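Task: sequence design from structure.
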C-alpha cells in the first residue's frame, strides 16, 4: 500500500472509530447514566484513543504478497494491541477504576473493532466490484517452475481441476516443468523423511521414489532456479523427469 493510501485509510479509520465510540457511549450512558453529559475533556480523550487505535493499524499494513494465515495473525495481534494499549491508557487516566469497568471497556473495544473491520471488508468488496478486472493477453515476465508428483502428473489434460495448468504455462515467457516419477503428493515435502507412516496414511499409500533422492533433487532444482531468477547466476536447466 502506498504511503498516501495508508494515511487516507488511517484518517478514515480514525473517523469511523471516533464516531463508533461516541455512538456506543451515547447509547450506554442513555441506559445507565442518562444525566451524564459529554464534557470537552471526554471528547479529547476519545479523539486521542481513536487516533491511537487508527495508528496501530500499521500492523495491518502488510507487504503486497501475504498469506491468509499471516493476515489473520496480524488481525489478532492488532486486536490484542488495541485492547492492551487502550485499557492501559484508560487505567492511567483514571477512566477505569475496577475490574467491571475494565471488562465493559474491553467489550466496547471489541464491538467497535468488529464494526470497523466489517466496514473495511464491505469497502474492499465494493472496490473490487467497481474495478473491471480482465485477463491480460501479455506474457508474464517472471519465470515459473512447476514440480509435479505422479498424483497430479497423471491428471494433467484430463482432470478439469488441472486443465488450466498447461494453458497457463503458455502465458509465461519462461516456464519449466519437472515430473518426479514415482512420487506421491507429500513426496515433495519433508514429511516422509521424519514421519513416513503419517505421510503414507495422508497420501493413501507409499511412494516408490526414494524420499531422500526426491527432496534433495527438489531442493537442488529450487536453489538453481532461485539463483537464476533472483540472483542472475547462470541459466536454469533441468531434466523433464527425475
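Answer:
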Amino acid at each position: 500500500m502506498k504511503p498516501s493510501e495508508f494515511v487516507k485509510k488511517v484518517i478514515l479509520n480514525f473517523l469511523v472509530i471516533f464516531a463508533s465510540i461516541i455512538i456506543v457511549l451515547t447509547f450506554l450512558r442513555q441506559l445507565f447514566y442518562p444525566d451524564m453529559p459529554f464534557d470537552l475533556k471526554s471528547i479529547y480523550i476519545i479523539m486521542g484513543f481513536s487516533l491511537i487505535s487508527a495508528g496501530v493499524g500499521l500492523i495491518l499494513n502488510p507487504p503486497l504478497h501475504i498469506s491468509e494465515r499471516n493476515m489473520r495473525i496480524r488481525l489478532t495481534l492488532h486486536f490484542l494491541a488495541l485492547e492492551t494499549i487502550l485499557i492501559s491508557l484508560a487505567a492511567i487516566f483514571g477512566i477505569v477504576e475496577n475490574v467491571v469497568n475494565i471488562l465493559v471497556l474491553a467489550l466496547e473495544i471489541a464491538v467497535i473493532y468488529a464494526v470497523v473491520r466489517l466496514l473495511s471488508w464491505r469497502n474492499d468488496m465494493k472496490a473490487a466490484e467497481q474495478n473491471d478486472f480482465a485477463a491480460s493477453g501479455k506474457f508474464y515476465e517472471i519465470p515459473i517452475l512447476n514440480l509435479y508428483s505422479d498424483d497430479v502428473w497423471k491428471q494433467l489434460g484430463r482432470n478439469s481441476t488441472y486443465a488450466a495448468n498447461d494453458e497457463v504455462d503458455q502465458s509465461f515467457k519462461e516456464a519449466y516443468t519437472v515430473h518426479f516419477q514415482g512420487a506421491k503428493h507429500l513426496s515433495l515435502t519433508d514429511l516422509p523423511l521424519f514421519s513416513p507412516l503419517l505421510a503414507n496414511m495422508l497420501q493413501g499409500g507409499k511412494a516408490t521414489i526414494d524420499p531422500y533422492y526426491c527432496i534433495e533433487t527438489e531442493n537442488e532444482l529450487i536453489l538453481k532456479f532461485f539463483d537464476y531468477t533472483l540472483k542472475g547466476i547462470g541459466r536454469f536447466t533441468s531434466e523433464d523427469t527425475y
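The radius of gyration is 27 Å.
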